[in-house]
Each structure stands twice: as structure tokens, then as C-alpha cells.
Amino acid sequence: MTNPAQFISQVRAEAAKIVWPGRREVVTTTIMVFVMAGLFSLFFFLVDLLIRWGVTTVLTAVG
User: Over the stretch 24-44, which tens digit does the pLDDT of each residue have?
Assistant: First the structure.
């Protein structure tokens, strides 16, 4: 077990290794997140429509 001074020293050493993204990378990844969220929402909307149509068809045929 390390003492508090060693722990703080190790935390500072690890914090010095952090590489922060640049503005361009942040903007690019943010745009990609929005695009992917839009694509996934469209996909799940279409799957929901397909399942709803299938369930409605089955229930209409049975009932």
C-alpha cells in the first residue's frame, strides 16, 4: 500500500499523460454522434413500424 504522498505523485504523473482533443476533433466527433443518433433513431422507427404492422396483421387475422 502506498502512502498519500506517493499516491498524489502517481496521480500527477498519470494526469500529465492526458492528451486533450483539439477543437477540430471535438467538432468532428460531436457531428458523428448526432449523425449516428439520427441513423439509429430512423432504424428503430422503421423496425417499430414493421413490428406494429406484423402484430396488427396477426391480431386482425385471428380476431
Answer: 999 999 999 999 999 999 999
